[in-house]
UniProtKB/TrEMBL annotation:
InterPro entries given in the database record: E3A/B/C-like, HECT_dom, Hect_E3_ubiquitin_ligase
Pfam families: HECT
Gene3D superfamilies, per the entry: Hect, E3 ligase catalytic domain (3.30.2160.10), Hect, E3 ligase catalytic domains (3.90.1750.10)
Family to which this protein belongs: Belongs to the UPL family.
Protein name: HECT-type E3 ubiquitin transferase
Active-site residues, as the UniProt record annotates them: 429 (glycyl thioester intermediate)
Catalysed transformations (reactions): S-ubiquitinyl-[E2 ubiquitin-conjugating enzyme]-L-cysteine + [acceptor protein]-L-lysine = [E2 ubiquitin-conjugating enzyme]-L-cysteine + N(6)-ubiquitinyl-[acceptor protein]-L-lysine
Biological processes, Gene Ontology terms: protein polyubiquitination; ubiquitin-dependent protein catabolic process
Swiss-Prot/TrEMBL keywords: Transferase, Ubl conjugation pathway
Protein's job: Probable E3 ubiquitin-protein ligase which mediates ubiquitination and subsequent proteasomal degradation of target proteins.
Annotated source species: Gossypium raimondii (Peruvian cotton)
Domain HECT: 144-461
Length: 461
């Protein structure tokens, strides 16, 4: 596949090369044959990759080409190039890390164009911490699409109406994004529900809780897009079938396990049921149960009078899965997607499968690669890579649980804590950690744990 599309692409039309068919009556240009082979091969491999995403039978790296280099990445960013066409036709050939580089380059290019045209706006939000969702909704909803692309600087106001100290160089905005997403996507708020695996999807009954629920879904879509646009990771684990909707893909029966594996098993049981299904007394209706209120919906006109039989059971199965995956949350998903697409273009999202898209949103679920972080850290203030305090620091960080490692990244990159009793502190706008020269690893561990678990906002920074 890589040979056809990149190494040995179709011959130039002026080459005049033709291949005759077996009868000898018709000749086909070489480039037309190669183009057709490339299209068919990419479609086949794309289907195989989709199947592998649902139930992995081979490592994702088996789909990657070996020849992707910096030159290819630089070309793939530019529309009209062969590399860009390959990215659109067969993104699975390109390693995930390379596609992330292309994605971030495309975002940087958008920012640069806006700055060049003088439309890179700066908006200021005044946010009450105890009304963060309400204030963020009112202020962000008033922004145009161009405004959303611009910088947003946040000032937090405490419960007494006093502005918290600190200048937002980016860190306060990151803290704002983390707090607003935590509040908005909390299942207790009622806009989202979670699967048995604690993965999020729109609540079909959101309209029973919030009168303006669809406007809020639009807001949340733009909020998620803004986080991705700014490269801010947010802890929002979505159900796979809902991530497919961000890619504008329709959901089918095979996607149902990511929403309701028990219902999926029941439907598959019906599919293979050998006895007379009509004896089960099933009809083309589905019962919705939202907040204790049961309602019946017909899957077909007159469905309450249409019994499920061996002849129509396949239709019943697909109608049930379509109802749960698509119909029930169609309005919520549509409004969320509209908000999301204000900043995230479809062609960017199409570069990634659902699992990779979740990585773009939340980062890796695996432990922090401390060694990689160490290799990419610069030192100042008398410290160097071999300093005994630095050695202790990396040993302590490596020993932390995944939860505490995440808290460290948040503290170092999106929250600032007061320097009380010589605690480690951070300058979040530049991802700077200020580390006092502790005398022992135990003391360093105690102070670091206290610092990353404190939650004083920016009031004392």
């Amino acid at each position: 596949m890589w040979q056809i599309l990149w190494v040995n692409p179709s011959a130039h039309p002026s080459s005049g090369k033709f291949i005759s068919n077996t009868s000898g009556h018709k000749k086909h240009p070489v480039e037309a044959i190669q183009s057709r082979v490339g299209t068919v091969a990419s479609e086949l491999l794309s289907q195989l990759q989709d199947w592998n995403n649902r139930r992995q039978f081979t490592p994702p790296s088996d789909f990657h080409a070996d020849g992707v280099n910096d030159y290819f990445i630089s070309q793939a960013v530019m529309e009209g190039t062969k590399a860009h066409d390959i990215l659109k036709q067969a993104p699975f050939l390109i390693p995930f890390t390379s596609r992330v580089k292309i994605f971030t380059s495309q975002l940087a290019s958008v920012r640069h164009r806006q700055e060049a045209h003088g439309v890179f706006t700066r908006n200021r939000f005044r946010i009450r911490r105890d009304h963060i969702l309400e204030d963020a909704y009112n202020q962000m909803s008033a922004l145009s699409e161009e405004d959303l692309r611009g910088l947003i600087r946040v000032t937090f106001v405490n419960e007494f109406g006093v502005e918290e100290a600190g200048i937002d160089g980016g860190g306060i905005f990151k803290d704002f994004m983390e707090n607003i997403t935590r509040a908005a996507f909390d299942v207790q708020y009622g806009l989202f529900k979670e699967t048995a695996d604690h993965l999020l999807y729109p609540n079909p009954g959101s309209g029973m809780i919030h009168e303006q629920h669809l406007q809020f879904f639009h807001f949340l879509g733009s909020l998620l897009a803004k986080a991705m646009f700014e490269g801010i990771l947010v802890d929002i684990p979505f159900a796979t079938f809902f991530l497919s909707k961000l890619k504008q893909k329709y959901n089918y029966l095979n996607d149902l396990p990511s929403l309701d594996p028990e219902l999926y098993r029941h439907l598959i049981f019906l599919k293979h049921y050998k006895e007379d299904i009509s004896g089960l007394e099933l009809y083309f209706v589905i019962v919705n149960n939202e907040y204790g209120e049961q309602t019946e919906e017909e899957l077909l006109p007159g469905g309450k009078n249409i019994r499920v039989t061996n002849e129509n059971v396949i239709t019943f199965i697909h109608l049930v899965s379509n109802h749960r995956l698509n119909f029930q949350i169609r309005q919520q998903s549509t409004h969320f997607l509209r908000g999301f697409q204000q900043l995230m273009r479809k062609e960017w999202i199409d570069m990634f499968n659902e699992h990779e898209l979740q990585l773009l949103i939340s980062g890796s679920l695996d432990s922090l690669d401390v060694d990689d972080l160490r290799q990419n850290t610069n030192y100042a203030g008398g410290y160097h890579g071999e300093h005994y305090v630095i050695d202790m620091f990396w040993e302590v960080l490596k020993s932390f649980s995944l939860e505490n490692q995440k808290k460290f990244l948040k503290a170092a990159g999106s929250a600032s804590e007061e320097a009380l009793d010589r605690l480690p502190t951070s300058a979040t706008c530049m991802n700077l950690l200020k580390l006092p020269p502790y005398g022992s690893k135990e003391q360093l561990e105690t102070k670091l744990l206290y610092a990353i678990n404190a939650d004083a906002g920016f009031d004392l920074s």
